[in-house]
Amino acid sequence: MRAWLLAAVTALATAAAPVMVGDFSAGSLQSWTSKRFKGETHYRLVTAEGRTVLQAVSHAAASGLYKRVHIDLDETPYLHWSWKVENTLGPLRERTRGGDDYPARVYVVFSGGLLFWRTRAINYVWSNNQPVGSEWPNAYTDNDRMIAVASGNARVGQWVQEGRNVRADFRRLFGEDVRYVDAVALMTDTDNSGKSATAYYGDIYFSSR
Fold first, then answer.
1. Please, which of 16, 62, 124, 156 could form a disulfide with 208 given CB 3.0 to 4.6 Å?
2. Which residues contact 80 (CB under 8 A, 6 or more apart)?
């Protein structure tokens, strides 16, 4: 029993501290930068259900927020966030360019350095209609992969807590290992469908477990 307890205490003592990426509950958008693709999704900090979160409102628009980070997946491979959507976008063909719209998505970006064409990303999306667990190439680039971690209307209006082993996802999707995350982004986009969506994002952070 003592040996088990000692091992548990040692593991806790050596576990890396969580790395905060989106500290929205503290009222901070520090180091987040806007990126426009078509029109503008409006992002702002709001109070919802007693806490500060990031609200995204999109009307036939696609713009996101991104933050440059340096996350060591040897230390903190698990990504955590929460989100809520007020609506989904119906029966879009999400694997085509005309249907590449989502009420909420979180990107994890891995830089190719000087080999910029090797920059890759995982898109964790609240899908409109793809089953949870579905994975597919992004409609615009083979360097991005999509994972439906939430889907459809069953949980619309509810906060959903998500957690992913980013390193394991990268290995499975791209067939190789990766150590560092170089940016995190989020986007609520409706430009292809011409529809509207409202979403909320809670804090985003990486942890060792």
1. 16
2. 161, 162, 163, 203, 204, 205, 206, 207
